[in-house]
Specification:
By secondary structure, the chain is α+β, with helices and mostly antiparallel strands. It has four helices and twelve strands, in the order H-E-E-E-E-E-E-H-E-E-E-E-E-E-H-H. Helix 2 packs antiparallel against helix 4.
Amino acid sequence: MEKKLMEEIKSDSAIFFTCFHKDRYFKERVKGLGEVLIFSKGYVFYCKNGSFYSRQFMEILIDDGSDLKYFVSQPIKLEDQELFDFAKNSFKVITKERIRPFVYQYHDSKSNTSIYQEFQISHPDGKSILILFGNQHVYADINEHHLKFKENLQNRQNLNFEYNNQTKQKALYQKVVKLIDKLDNQYEY
């Protein structure tokens, strides 16, 4: 999907943010199409001729659910390049770091030992960020659950919370989400 979109926008610098809904689809009303089942939805932020743009893209199921279609919005010109500046300045760090999984500690009374375990959730939403600058790229899977401090249902603390909270990947993720919220409130793709 990214390769096809890069050819269409004719840019060698881009940031893709994609939400995959693994093994499940969600319904959403799309202007001009009505209610559809969405498999993946995302945004691309790119530079072209010194200006910065955003486009939304979706893979949706139409009709009886057997036909997967790909749609891309018209470009929206961005007011500033803060997202690109941050990604470019943090690129080397982002390529080396990874957000760690939600790990918690509990005490096993039978063996009288502390046990460390990764917290598993049944339906994680897959989110990813792909950064392309010329022929260099970095891909990061983002699981919002790994960014949480506590799991509320079982009141377990994430031992990787402090590390994850300080990563450039998390900072980039927050900047992307903030920009998407702003664009979604200002424009209708």
